[in-house]
């Protein structure tokens, strides 16, 4: 991995964002619904086609995207691959709140080693590579993450604008959390990485492409991410690409101090 790879991938993410914004202004984005009842728009399709085409043109590395998953038998021995969510937060895109992103990650040996998250509506670009820290590019300036510091013992949760679960509410009660910062898509990872929140608990279904870029941006900013079933960091290229529930926590927070709902390891096949 080198600076050329990172700059190429950030360029691809930004151009995919431009494609998405072209559709964002359209009064009719041709919304369809997938088998799991999640929405699919022309923007998802356009971004996906562009990203996959460019990655395949630039790098001899296979690509898995939300819109083109690969059967396990074909990918099970892959040591490296790109993992793409071409439009994370489709419901936020449809709702026109601006909180949707392009997510691109490079996975090596089941761990993310590069991650890019681009928010087209705001122009914010988050990125990280293994061992080199995490950064935010905004208004032609570059900031090393975290941009702000949380105090030890402070507990601010970031969660979804579109959905929450009973487990989320129970987790907040168990840990006496009073402040909730609502964010869409992978911007919840970015909120913790930037220091705007101390916790992002996920007690709902998510897929590997939803979290890979955010995973490395969070850890390279000094935060942690824990699969609450295994007690370890999430791994990628599993037979099922559905994630277990997880917690992203700021570096100032001791995760062993957290209390969890009793059925915290019961995952749902429902993907939201």
Q: What features would you highlight for this structure?
A:
single chain; about 270 residues; alpha+beta; Fructose-1,6-Bisphosphatase, Chain A, domain 1; D-Maltodextrin-Binding Protein, domain 2; 2 domains; seven-stranded mixed sheet; three-stranded antiparallel sheet; 7 helices; 14 strands; about 30% helix; globular; disordered C terminus
Structural write-up:
The structure is a single chain. The chain is α+β, with helices and mostly antiparallel strands. Helices cover 29% and strands 26% of the residues. It is built from 7 helices and 14 strands. A 7-stranded mixed sheet has the order 3-4-5-6-7-8-9, sandwiched between helices. A 3-stranded antiparallel sheet has the order 12-14-13, with helices on one face. The two termini are 33 Å apart. 41% of the residues are buried.
Shape: globular
Strand order of the largest sheet: 3-4-5-6-7-8-9
In whole angstroms, the N-to-C terminal distance is 33 Å
Average pLDDT number: 92
Fraction of residues in H or I helices: 25-40%
Q: How much of the polypeptide forms β-strand, as a percent range? A: 25-35%
Q: Flag low-confidence runs.
A: 268-272
- Give me the secondary-structure category: alpha+beta
SS elements, strand count: 14
CATH topology of the largest domain: Fructose-1,6-Bisphosphatase, Chain A, domain 1
Q: Count structural domains.
A: 2
Radius of gyration from CA coordinates:
17 Å
Tell me, what is the CATH class of the largest domain?
A: Alpha Beta
Reconstruct the topology from this structure.
Blueprint: H1 3-24, E1 32-33, E2 39-40, H2 42-58, E3 63-65, H3 72-75, E4 80-88, H4 90-95, E5 101-108, E6 111-119, E7 124-129, E8 134-138, E9 141-144, E10 156-160, H5 166-174, E11 179-183, H6 187-194, E12 199-202, H7 208-220, E13 224-227, E14 246-249
Parallel strand pairs: 3-4, 10-11
Antiparallel strand pairs: 1-2, 4-5, 5-6, 6-7, 7-8, 8-9, 12-14, 13-14
Helix pairs in contact: 1-2, 6-7
